[in-house]
Write a structure and sequence with these properties.
The chain has 3 domains: 4-133 and 302-325, 3-Layer(aba) Sandwich (Rossmann fold), CATH 3.40.50.720; 136-297, Dihydrodipicolinate Reductase, domain 2; 351-431, Alpha-Beta Plaits, CATH 3.30.70. By secondary structure, it is an alpha/beta fold. Helix 4 (82-93) packs parallel to helix 5. The protein has helices at residues 13-24, 26-33, 62-67, 82-93, 103-120, 136-143, 158-170, 174-183, 192-195, 198-212, 231-239, 301-318, 366-376, 406-418, and strands at residues 4-11, 37-47, 58-59, 73-76, 97-100, 124-125, 149-155, 222-223, 242-253, 256-257, 260-267, 279-286, 290-297, 351-361, 381-386, 394-401, 404-405, 422-431. Bound molecules: 1,4-dihydronicotinamide adenine dinucleotide, ligand LTNE7NMQ and sodium ion. It catalyses: L-homoserine + NAD(+) = L-aspartate 4-semialdehyde + NADH + H(+).
Length: 438
């Protein structure tokens, strides 16, 4: 059987891992694909130290790979938006299938890329783009194909979860743990993508499109990062029976779709609260199957390579199939005709419970005024902790509220922050108590 010839662009963490897994497991992969998969060419600027490319046709110009007539599948592992877009569109234009781990590329340029690929009859596969090695795209697109998806919620950034876990368990500083995650190859080249939730929003955008059959709409995702979470918040959440996790949440509601990434208090006994380190987990609720959970390594060289190589394998199997009958990119068939126009809801319309932390001057009447502001917005308090004054005259107040609209909470926070007796911004962390099973 004719081999499938692969061109790998980028030999960093994931590119190096992909090269090594493809080489090491070549025999098993060939048996699964029904034909050998060979590395025809690599395009790189630098080579990961774990990767030995002796004897391989190599170039420093990745566009040479995209136009090489001997390459059947271009594997894009250079990252970023613009150059990656140009590279992938060039490869498609030259009739090549594409495998990518690049969530930024798919979330922002996916609609354009899928259209180009559809017109050319080639495959674009991107399992590694969401939750690294966890086969969540395959599960959602194929395994759950019978279901109306109600919601998707998960820890979908390994770096962020690694930071929160080590800050909580070892009391270490944010920057220190971030540097470690970078050294381990987990972080994006710009780590603010990880800590500010942009990377998770890219991934959530992709998951939501597959779950509900809507176009990719990254620009409508609400994104809040973990950089303002303090050791005090972690401790107070713990006292109240919660763990803080950085979640991506997308729900179907009567008003449209929620699409949001933010730190979230989760009751300690929930499965998602017990996902630690670089591990990711995604809970998905289908109307027929009920809740399901997908867990594993969300980042790292070989876990991510596992998904990249599985996609190459799928391409090898699908190559002989009429492209109209292949699994569609976003699970719903066709490019335009089966796409739903369900709107993405503005964040102000979302209803959730809240944890609030404020620093107040230790003076009678302050707490009563805060309670009045909340009550005027129709917000009721579920629990309140007022600590001893520890910072001069300032005393931390922790509040847990019942569920309310984000709009009401925004207004209440504006008024509380305007009080002369309140110092600095109010910390707000949303609380999520999804259903059973996650
Ligand atoms: N590191 C991880 O755990 C995961 C990364 N990803 C994604 O995989 C992609 C690659 O990420 P990493 O391997 O971590 O990054 P990396 O920075 O380790 O590797 C990227 C490599 O591409 C090379 N490169 C960049 N532009 C190039 C160009 N124009 N020509 C030739 N080479 C070029 C760089 O020299 C570097 O060696 C990104 O899209 C990332 O978001 C996805 C899942 C997990
Ligand atoms: N930087 C990302 C890599 C995988 O997608 C993460 O930490 O999750
Ligand atoms: Na995946």
């Amino acid at each position: 059987m004719k081999p499938v010839r692969v061109g790998i662009c980028g030999l960093g963490t994931v590119g190096g891992g992909t090269f090594n897994v493809l080489t090491r497991n070549a025999d098993d992969i060939a048996r699964r694909a029904g034909r050998p998969i060979v590395i025809e060419q690599v395009g790189h600027r630098s080579i990961h130290p774990d990767c030995d490319i002796t004897g391989i046709n190599a170039t420093t110009d990745v566009f040479e790979v995209a136009t090489n007539p001997n390459v059947d599948v271009l594997v894009e592992l250079i990252g970023g938006y613009d150059m990656a877009r140009e590279l992938v569109l060039t490869a498609i234009e030259h009739g090549k299938h594409v495998v990518t781990a690049n969530k930024a590329l798919i979330a922002v340029h996916g609609n354009e890329i899928f259209k180009a690929a559809h017109e050319k009859g080639v495959i674009v596969a991107f399992e590694a783009a969401v939750a690294g090695g966890i086969p969540v795209i395959k599960s959602l697109r194929e395994g759950l194909g019978a279901n109306r998806i109600e919601w998707v919620a998960g820890i979908i950034n390994g770096t962020g979860n690694y930071i929160l876990t080590h800050m909580r368990d070892e009391g270490r500083a944010f920057e220190d743990v971030l540097a470690e995650a970078q050294a381990l190859g987990y972080a994006e080249s710009d780590p603010t993508f990880d800590v500010e939730g942009i990377d998770a929003a890219h991934k959530l955008t992709i998951l939501a499109s597959i779950a509900y059959g809507v176009p990719l709409q990254f620009e409508k995702a609400f994104t809040e990062g973990i950089s303002r979470i303090t050791a005090e918040d972690v401790e107070q959440a713990d006292n109240l029976g919660y763990i803080i996790k950085h979640l991506g949440i997308s729900k179907r509601t009567d008003q449209g779709l929620e699409l949001r990434v933010h730190p979230t208090l989760i009751p300690k006994e929930r499965l998602l609260a017990n996902v630690h380190g670089v591990k990711n987990a995604i809970a998905i609720m289908g109307d027929a199957v009920g809740p399901t959970l997908y867990y594993g390594a969300g980042a790292g060289a070989e876990p991510t390579a596992s998904a990249v190589v599985a996609d190459i394998l799928d391409v090898a199997r699908d190559i002989a199939t009429d492209h109209h009958y292949r699994v569609p990119y976003l699970a719903f068939s066709g490019i335009d005709e089966d796409v739903s126009q369900l709107p993405i809801m503005p964040m102000e319309e979302i209803t959730t419970a809240y944890y609030l932390r404020l620093l107040a001057v230790d003076r009678p009447g302050v707490l009563a005024r805060v309670a009045t502001i909340l009550s005027e917005q129709g917000i009721s308090i579920e629990a309140l902790i007022q600590k001893e004054a520890t910072e001069g005259e300032l005393v931390p107040i922790i509040l847990m509220t019942h569920r309310t609209k984000e709009r009401q909470m925004n207004e209440a926070i504006r008024e509380i922050e305007a009080m002369a007796d309140i110092a600095g911004p109010v910390t707000r962390i949303r609380v999520e108590s999804l259903g059973e099973g996650e």
